[in-house]
Amino acid sequence: MKHTASQPVTEQRNEKTANLDKLSVLEIIEVMNAEDQTVAVAVRQALPQIESAISGIVERMKLGGRLFYIGAGTSGRLGILDASECPPTFGVNRELVTGIIAGGEAAIMTAIENAEDDADAGAGDIEAVITAADVVVGIAASGNTPYVIGAIRRAREIGALTVSVSCNSGARLSEAAQYAIEVPVGPEIVTGSTRLKAGTATKMVLNMITTTAMIKLGKVYGNLMVNVQATNLKLRDRVVRIVQDATGADEAAAAAHVEQAEGDARLAILMIRFGIGKAQAQGALQQSGDHFGDAVELLEKEKKKEKGIIE
Fold it and tell me: For 142, which of 8, 60, 75, 80 could close a Cys bridge (C-beta 3.0–4.6 Å)?
């Protein structure tokens, strides 16, 4: 099959899988696994672009900006997935990270294929929710989706920081954004099915964006999810283990402090580590802008002052 120069690589035929329908189950999953192994390599090659984008995002978020993902189809769903996991994992407001999909909520469960072709709709959807203080990440495997390009262009006009994530080189979306992330993963094993390698690559990049941003915003201590919300039995048990890991306290002491802290691992850790009450721990967090690492440093300095240690 001959390809035109304008055809995105993600839409081209993968010659390695030309006889895919003739393969056994084992052969199909072997070729899928082999192709998937190339995704991590492609993401690694894009790390400089990803680093620059995340640095810009963190700078905006430290000043109070919010993060918006916008995409169509699989790309939109991946943005919504990543956004929805931030509150329980990092204890942040649902408004801090938001996913928007072409076609609205109905498109989360049902494909609305023509919604991605409306650039004006993308511009209107983003204009309705952002300010100049925010960040907008446009996601499109092809890098050519009009809805997403329209959203990014409008976001940039408003003054928001704009980032693009695509799986092709030289994407039109890249030209519209201030920070362009391109992860060219090559043709899919099923031609044009970008829910496969392109979807995996996109998920990896979005994982990096929010996880790194939350770490830099002080929502992680060491490698512990100190901001996790204890909303069920499994997570309540996890909070106790986090407090144990962070302080060396036994299970009973950790559980008792977690109860006093009303399930807030950060407060329980500070209470145990510095021998202080809940109110003082809350005050340290408030003074530190809810950055847990900064709260620890603040209390360490106060403890040194009490002991007469001058740095």
Answer: 8
| Cα gap 73→46, rounded to integer Å | 23
The pTM for the full model equals 0.90
Q: Which of 51, 61, 136, 132 is nearest to 92 (CA)?
A: 61
- What are the sequence ranges of the domains in the chain? 9-216, 233-306
Kindly report, residue by residue over 210-264, the tens digit of the pLDDT: 999 999 999 999 999 999 877 788 888 999 999 999 999 999 999 999 999 999 9
Q: How far is CA 166 from CA 32, 35, 101, 154, 230, in A?
A: 21, 18, 16, 18, 35
Active site residue 51: no
Strand, helix or coil at 133?
coil
Q: Is 11 a catalytic residue?
A: no
At residue 161, the 3 state secondary structure works out as strand
Q: Residue 246 has which token pair?
A: 């962070």
Spatial distance between the Cα atoms of 36 and 197, rounded to a whole number of angstroms: 6
Length in residues, the chain: 311
Classify domain 9-216 by CATH number.
3.40.50.10490
Helices (H), the chain: 25-45, 47-62, 73-84, 86-90, 106-109, 119-127, 146-158, 172-176, 197-216, 233-247, 251-260, 265-274, 278-287, 292-306
- Tracing tokens 């006009």 back to the chain, one arrives at 157
Tell me if domain 9-216 and domain 233-306 are identical in fold.
no
Please pick, among 116, 127, 259, 300, the residue that the annotation labels catalytic: 116
DSSP 99: E
- Alpha-carbon distance of 44 to 23, in angstroms, equals 31
What would the mean pLDDT of 263-268 be, rounded to a whole number? 94
C-alpha distances (whole Å) from 138 to each of 36, 100, 142 are 23, 10, 12
User: Which of 85, 105, 259, 306 is flagged as catalytic?
Assistant: 85
DSSP state of 224: B
Q: Looking at domain 233-306, does it have CATH number 1.10.8.1080? A: yes
